[in-house]
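G., the chain you wanted modeled:
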Amino acid sequence: VDIISMPIALAQAVKTILGRISQASDRAWMKNPLFTQKSLPVFAVILGVINLLALIQYGWLVTHAYTLLVAVFIITRVVPGMLLYETPKDNGITPTIAIVIPAYNEEESAAKTIDRALETGYDLDRLKVIGINDGSQDGTWAAMQEAESRHPGNVELINFVQNRGKREGLYAGVQKVTSEIIVVVDSDSYLTPGSLYQIVQPFDDPEVMAVSGHTAVHNTDTNLLTRMQTVWYDVMFRVFKAGESRFGLVSCCPGCFSAYRTSALQSVMEDFRGLQFAGTRCTYGDDRSLTNMI
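Predicted structure as tokens:
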């Protein structure tokens, strides 16, 4: 397990570090094919060989060091998350909110997502939904238009004739916002009553720029895979993110439900839209990119 997992983890770390460097530098060497997205397997193989040699020569030391590091990583999240987590204070604030919902081929859920976003109990005079149809090839656009007709004055729609990707959808939606807070929700995610009010409370602190919402699996009992996914989400949110929040350093505000101070989000959208790694445009990891930038 160590031979496989350690090099993959290290390769991911190397790729992330190089990506961060490339964001801050235009140096020509960063355009070298060695540093493209496709080079990840190469890094993994090289690190795997090094790790295998290390295990042969210093097997007990490498194995125990890795085990210790994993244990420390888990403990530093489990203890704060399960024992020290506190529900955010109710500060009584109700800032204006714009909910940005990009959608692609989600005809069965996009309209319901819009409906639920406007049924959380938040003051509708202070709430607006901006839905983006990202060139869907099914009935998503028609479904979103039906939702708009059910909530006149609270829904604004943007239609891309061709698929452009989630980054472009988020960019287009955020540019339309004049509200104080932007909430990003995936087109297959459903907000629960009270969720909008709760997620904006930490913004009473002027130093808070982003807040992660809590997410759970909707169809837990469908099959074994959804049950496994439920456990994964519980660990990630109830333990890891809860632990990170004790330090005010959540590593990733998820795309399924997160809130951002509008001024902070709009200030990074140009960089977010054109983010590249060694000359290759990034098309994944949108939520982590936004978290890192902010």
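The longest helix spans residues 40-84.

Shout if anything looks off.
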